What does this fold into?
Amino acid sequence: MSILQGDLQTRSGRETLFSKLVLQRPKNVWFSPSCGPWSGFSCLNGSRSVEAWDELQQTRMKFLEQVALGDVILRHQRQHGRHMHWEQPRGSLMFKLPYMQEVRYYMLAVDVDLCSAGDLKDPTNGLPIRKTLTILSTSLNLINGLTGLRCPGQAVHPHHQVIEGQICVGGQRMNRSAFTENYPRKFARKIALLL
It folds into this structure.
């Protein structure tokens, strides 16, 4: 289910999701909640003023619903002997929340770099983009299949494109960070094969 099928920040979106979980009984649920409020960039912006910090805290409170939703999905999947996978950019403060204690207890973790795991490249200049994801999973098979998919560094990729800034994709200007929110096809295929 994507944002096109329902916004999980709304009651109707959550009801649609749980109807699908109950009726379709998926073996795997991939959960990638909004990372914005938990990113280092948000912390930097929040530190600019007291007002900015207060605004960041209000946004985080709003997005705690997604964390709670993830907890409930994990319990549901475990109760039925099925898997859940939770993705965030590495360094996300979401995984440090006290509400994540149960998640961290029942799920294994692996870090992957999308320049290696998915051949993520800047569409403008072709430079690899080293976006690192932390993936928590109840599936040992997925964790084992993703282990080692880290950037080999200077030997293979001497230069990486930073995620900051803007690019032009299909005639439309967009933030490079928004471009990197979509998984590269190679990475999505690898995940599908491992599940």
In short: DSSP finds eight helices and six strands in the chain. The mean pLDDT is 86. The first helix runs from residue 11 to 24. Residues 107-195 form one domain.
